[in-house]
Amino acid sequence: MEFEAGGARLSDWTSRRRAATPHETKAVHVGTLEVGLAVHAAQSLKDRRRSVESLKRRIRNTFNAAVADLDGDPIPGRARIGVACVSNDPRRLDAQMRAILEFIERVHLDLEVTDDQIEIIHL
After folding, report:
1. DSSP letter for each residue of 25-42
2. Domains of the chain by range and CATH?
3. Confidence of residue 78 (pLDDT cuts 50, 70, 90)
């Protein structure tokens, strides 16, 4: 059974695809950043959530990165976030992860970075 669309059969399209040669394939790298934060302004979980959501939104908008709150059982004075980016250049990923970390330290005065870990994964 063949699928036809616009006068061409699906088998025609698949047979035209060519295999990528080794020099044409691009490496994919995933950069991850895990940041532990002390939330000084948070007296309640609502205050903590407000600070963390603000930080996540600003990171997404500024760096076009995926950001998540990693705390399964949140505590008002602490937070842990994860940031992920994808690129074909590991040096660019490392620079971007370090820029995000500096951004957190510089922009959010109510949050203090307690620990961080950057990892670049080759896929």
Report:
1. ----EEEEEEEEEEETT-
2. 26-122 (3.30.70.1120)
3. very high
